[in-house]
Write a structure and sequence with these properties.
The chain is an alpha+beta fold. Helix content is 39%, strand content 14%. α4 crosses α17.
Amino acid sequence: MASKEEPVCQIFSFQDCKTSPDPIFALPAGYPSSTPVPIVIDNGSFQTRADWAAAAAESSAPRLLFRSVAARSRGAARSDTQIGNDIPNLEPLRWLLKSQFDRNVVVNFEIQELMFDYVFTHLGIASEGSVEHPIVLTEAACNPLHCRQMMSELLFECYQVPHVSYGVDGMYSFYHNNTQRNLQPPHTGIVLSSGYHCSHILPVINGRLDAVNCKRVNLAGAQAASYLQRLLQLKYPGHLAAITLSRMEELLHEHSYTAVDYQEELEKWRSPEFYEREVHRMQLPFTGKVPGGCVSVEERQERRAQQLRRLQEINARRREEKLQQDQEKLDRLLAVQELLEDGLLDQFHKSLVELNMDSAEELQSYINKLQLAVEQGRHKLLQSDGAEGKTEVSELEQPMDDGDGVALMDPDFPEDTLPEKPANVVQPVFNMAEYHQLFVGTERLRCPEILFQPSLSGEDQMGLMETLQYVLARYTPEQQEALVSNVFLTGGNMQYRGMKERVERELQAMRPFQSHFKVTMASRPALDAWYGARDWALEHPPVGGGGGAAEGWISRQDYEEKGGEYLSEHCASNLFIPMKITKPVPARPAEPSVTTSTSTGATVAVTTVTSASCSAAAAADVPMVTS
């Protein structure tokens, strides 16, 4: 019975998954060739997912899944850049990794262009200089107009795409899951999306994103992984190199969970039985051979003899070098003394100045010292050569003890105080496997908790549920009831076990008594954004009935007429608020204006434009719309 009550320790090993390069796919023959098939790209800050928008099976995952990072050595060519799955192990190249994101907003469009090249190449697009397929691309919630303008410029100018559609990843996931649950549009609810760099609270009213009340929390999976790495490195300072960021991400994904009641769960961990049952021992790689553990007396004698020989060789080499240096100095001083004996006084005094000496007596004293040092060095060198063999034999003949190889020769030491060590006693062996284990206990719930309590990691901001309460307070009670009736959780950082129960408990605490709410988790939190974008692309073809771009799509003509920041809204997109940003122009003296009359009778003031004003207007780069 006692053996059954003993807790069973859980020992896990790190997978340390290595990625393999993606193959180059081809467009299947079954797809229609008359209409270009859209390409759906979920441009995530942690992982990029891309594939054709084809009416395939529901469970088919996107063909391309790779980390949104690029690595290129300094000075290497652009073609030598490694992207995504071309990097088998991220840790050796961690200091070289670059991403196109600053948090969740694309700012480095050189890296983004490399990502597009990788996607289009591996999807089998062989057209020269252009991509003749519509693109469905995800973007950040409330994406800045400048970032969308640069993205549209990259797609339309560099790749010559015919149509582009932008949408928010959390909204696509919301759209996909509502369709699966057969909810009739327009949908109303609130989306809690947590990814790699940021978490978002997205209220949806009548099927459209309420961008005014959207909020972002700068806490997500990257901060949790960094916090876990700091905790374990402080706990195990002897394994700093083994506690890598990739392993911490694996710990978060596979072994962490969210506590429904954080304080109550921590109290459980105070119990030794609960700790032994729930702690996860992560086994680090190690070698089983202990240095010096099982070495015989003969091997120790041989090693000591080798050490003595090496020391003797080093000492002999140093004596020879010192003797050679002294001999060279002596020869130089004797050559200067010969100049005095030959009567070459000018050269003699010049040489003395070079040697920093004042007289011939000082030169003679240095010569005497060097001659004595050379004679002593030669004598020591001869003695060491003759005594080398004797010293080695005498050292080997000394009795060797089992501990450190040194015999106790003190006659005053009582012999009977040390009991004889039995030969059959087995000495305790150092457990190398246990030394290379990481005991992950409360860290399993402390790291996901920073999403609700950012102060644990030193962040001075509101948690996810506090921000949700702030957002709900901006609506009327009727709107609040409609929003909390469909609380939707999505994103890769929402996959912790117990996340749904924790959100339900927090909502129950903040909502009025006997109020109703419903929390739903995405069926595939990390992939539903891509599935939703694929479903939307299949249901909304890019070409409308009149031949122009359909709702939600931006054609090349729209891009040229309305600017790169233009957005065609749809059920999963951002809200387009056109803003005319004018750059300040330096003040200059007023130019005389000429008043002319047009054919319609209107008076127009024409101002003389100088070359300076032309350059200022070109620098401002403000689009002008004429009627």
